[in-house]
Design a protein that fits this description.
- The protein is an alpha/beta fold.
- Helices cover 40% and strands 16% of the residues.
- An eight-stranded parallel sheet has the order 7-6-5-4-3-2-1-8.
- Helix 1 crosses helix 2 and helix 4 packs across helix 5.
- The longest helix has 28 residues.
- The chain is globular and about 55 Å long.
- 41% of the residues are buried.
- About 2% of the residues have low confidence.
- Bound molecules: pyridoxal-5'-phosphate.
- Pyridoxal-5'-phosphate binds next to strand 8 and helix 9.
Length: 251
Amino acid sequence: MGPADAGATHAAVAQGLARVRARMRDAERRFGREPGSVALLAVSKVQAPAKIAAAFDAGQTAFGESYIQEAVEKMDALAGLPLEWHFIGRIQANKTRLISERFDWVHSLGDLQHARRLGAQRPPGHPPLKVCIQVNLSGEPTKGGLAPDALAGFIAAASEIEGIHIEGLMTLPAPTDDFDAQRGAFAHLRTLRDQVAQTGLPLATLSMGMSDDLEAAIAEGASIVRVGTALFGPRQPREPRSGADPSNSQR
Ligand SMILES: *Cc1c(COP(=O)(O)O)cnc(C)c1O
């Protein structure tokens, strides 16, 4: 990439970031949320390291990745930058060690065996891995996550595991253009979080809302929105790579 291309990447990413931040601040105002109370996770899966560096230059530090091999390559390429890495893809048991060693957060936990592996494989000296439990509200079998009625039992068991810390809940609702339907799904996750809080485990994080529904998520109490396309532009199809497993995409 030449200097002119690099300059164009920087400008485009800075603009995308400014647009997404403006949408978030507008939604906070409109729905009575405290200004600046919603955090942005920049979903950088399939995007080049240069775009991540450009977003960092524009003040973004938290990045979300779905494909472990690709993520580790980008972490190595960007090792000089103080970035926070969030795993948001489907977890495979044979990848938990890399996830636990390399990431700060996992948003897509929905399996107790994975929780035990992530905790046991967290390197000594690292703070506990921050995890959100993914809830499958729509019952779509292609999506990961727990059924809502399995949540209480899961939390009781997972909260005992050393090496991980349960921060909150995450969901990836069925896409819809209908704002009230979007709000309905996010309200459901908030209600589940409030029910968990009544059992004595307050959970600060609601990871919900993406490019097309972040306003509805903010209206219903999102604390982290996960935004890719609206920030970085459309994703190119992933190049086939050896050992890649496309099934860990959730979308
Ligand atoms: C890809 C992805 C996102 C970002 O989606 P956009 O529509 O590009 O904003 C958010 N969360 C998860 C779990 C994803 O896989």
